[in-house]
């Protein structure tokens, strides 16, 4: 008996309706005849996906699953397509990229041929790139392979709708495709993919998952292999928990070689992490790093230091500083982020700097306490407790000057993560905004403190007129 370690074969999270009968074994049997062997987790998935009720109808009219990359999640779609076309069902197989749908067509052809079905006798094919088709010669079975668009599938009727690369499935595409199975007596829609990343454009997959796991969706099923929160992607124990094909077609060595320095991306791609939102950061990582310096800049003669301090609702406090550089830019960096329970002594120690001119303090309930502590400490550095309009102005000025190339920084990892996982949140009633974190676990107060520091520095530069905001 082999002692080889294998990945977890059951989902970490699932929502499956009860059933007593399934056609999943039929699909697995056809697939295995091709010389391949469905892995245990794939067999279990097929049972859930192809579960039928007492009337012979699919228990799950929709079924979605999310698994980290290179685990063979799309092989389930191949298994289902092989069964469907050989059982008289009409299938629309869609993907985000034409190469993906074309590769799926090639796989189905190859698996059918190796399973004993003969092209020209049992089925025929259309090989036109982007318009691939498999048609069963006895019965009504057919599979059309297409790249998704906002118009694809209109006017055509199918029994099965397959959404590969579902993380890119947009609401416009769903509006065009969801009706293609309406006329079927026993329709089913299948969606599989990975969790959305910062460049993913789709929202349907994310919303479907939320509805399934909340119990809002009816006649639907879901399965995923994932970690619940941002964690150490280099931990082998988590690899085995979230990669069912580890030990079968994946190895520890392969996973180890692919991991990089992007903790968020590694968590999404290899550990199946789902973020709270479809990531669309107000400032992308590429934009942020465009203004990164390789070495600390020379500051202007007698440059003053301007501090931004942000108390968050989560109980943390962040400190950032900004100063004018010799080449007439504004250099800023984060100093620290600590629990508000640590008191103000560490903040006071930084604000004692002889060049400290002003500290802008934001955070209801704590800002006045710090201002009083600064006064009691007899600091030369002044305190400013900003109004809502001033916070709005600070954030607007921060992004404007950043994208104008007037700001620079050293690419601190924590500040980079906060900036590249930020989303605007409404402030006031005139279109102003603050920031909120897209990624759970990221302390956005670091970015907010930096914004206040930069605004203070610009607003108090003698040769720069502060931005005027009218309300």
CATH class (first level) name of the largest domain? Alpha Beta
- Please give the CATH architecture of the largest domain: 3-Layer(aba) Sandwich
Main beta sheet strand tally, sense and closure? 9 strands, mixed
Amount of helix: 25-40%
Number of domains: 2
The end-to-end span amounts to 75 Å
Principal-axis shape: elongated
Q: Structural class, please?
A: alpha/beta
* Major beta sheet, strand line-up: 1-11-4-10-9-5-8-7-6
Number of helices, counting only DSSP H or I runs of 4 residues or more: 15
CATH topology of the largest domain: Rossmann fold
Question: How confident is the prediction overall: mean pLDDT?
Answer: 91
Low-confidence stretches: 463-471
From the alpha carbons, calculate the radius of gyration and give it in angstroms. Answer: 28 Å
Task: Work out the strand percent.
Answer: 15-25%
Detailed description of the structure:
This is Terminase. InterPro entries: P-loop_NTPase. 32% of the residues lie in helices and 21% in strands. It is of the alpha/beta class. It has two domains: 13-271, 3-Layer(aba) Sandwich (Rossmann fold); 285-459, Nucleotidyltransferase, domain 5. Strands 1-11-4-10-9-5-8-7-6 form a nine-stranded mixed sheet, with helices on both faces. A six-stranded mixed sheet has the order 16-15-12-13-14-17. The longest helix is centred in the first third of the chain and has 17 residues, at 98-114. The relative contact order is 0.11. Residues 463-471 have low confidence and may be disordered.
């Amino acid at each position: 008996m082999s002692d080889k370690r294998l990945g977890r074969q059951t989902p970490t999270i699932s929502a499956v309706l009860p059933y007593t009968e399934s056609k999943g074994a039929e699909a697995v049997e056809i697939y295995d005849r091709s010389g391949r062997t469905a892995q245990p987790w794939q067999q279990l998935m097929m049972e859930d996906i192809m579960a039928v009720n007492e009337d012979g109808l699919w228990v799950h009219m929709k079924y979605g699953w999310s698994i980290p990359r290179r685990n063979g999640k799309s092989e389930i779609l191949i298994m289902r397509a092989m069964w469907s076309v050989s059982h008289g069902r009409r299938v629309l197989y869609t993907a985000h990229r034409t190469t993906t749908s074309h590769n799926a067509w090639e796989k189905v052809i190859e698996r059918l041929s190796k399973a004993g079905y003969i092209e020209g006798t049992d089925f025929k094919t259309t090989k036109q790139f982007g318009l691939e088709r498999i048609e069963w010669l006895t019965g009504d079975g057919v599979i059309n392979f297409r790249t998704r668009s906002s118009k694809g599938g209109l006017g055509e009727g199918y029994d099965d709708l397959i959404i590969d690369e579902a993380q890119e499935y947009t609401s416009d595409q769903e509006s065009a495709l969801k009706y293609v199975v309406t006329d079927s007596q026993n329709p089913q829609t299948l969606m599989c993919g990975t969790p959305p990343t910062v460049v993913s454009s789709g929202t349907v997959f994310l919303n479907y998952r939320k509805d399934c796991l909340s119990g809002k969706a009816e006649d639907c099923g879901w399965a995923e292999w994932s970690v619940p929160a941002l964690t150490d992607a280099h931990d082998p124990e988590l690899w085995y928990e979230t990669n069912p094909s580890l030990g079968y077609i994946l190895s520890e060595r392969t996973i180890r070689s692919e991991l990089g320095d992007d903790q968020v991306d590694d968590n999404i791609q290899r550990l199946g992490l789902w973020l709270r939102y479809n990531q669309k950061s107000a400032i992308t990582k590429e934009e942020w790093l465009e203004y990164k310096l390789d070495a600390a800049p020379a500051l202007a003669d007698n440059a003053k230091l301007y501090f931004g301090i942000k108390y968050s609702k989560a109980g943390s406090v962040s400190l950032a500083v900004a100063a004018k550089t010799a080449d007439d830019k504004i250099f800023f960096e984060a100093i620290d982020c600590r629990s508000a329970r640590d008191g103000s002594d560490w903040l006071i120690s930084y604000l004692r700097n002889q060049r400290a001119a002003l500290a802008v303090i934001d955070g209801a309930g704590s800002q006045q306490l710090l201002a009083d502590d600064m006064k009691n400490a007899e600091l030369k550095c002044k305190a400013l407790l900003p109004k809502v309009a001033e916070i709005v102005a600070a954030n607007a000025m921060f992004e404007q000057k950043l994208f104008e190339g007037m700001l620079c920084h050293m690419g601190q990892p924590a500040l980079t993560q906060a900036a590249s996982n930020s989303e605007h949140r409404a402030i006031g009633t005139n279109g102003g905004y603050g920031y909120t974190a897209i990624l759970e676990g990221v302390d956005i107060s670091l970015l907010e403190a930096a914004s206040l520091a930069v605004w203070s520095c610009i607003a108090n530069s003698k040769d720069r007129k502060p931005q005027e905001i009218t309300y």
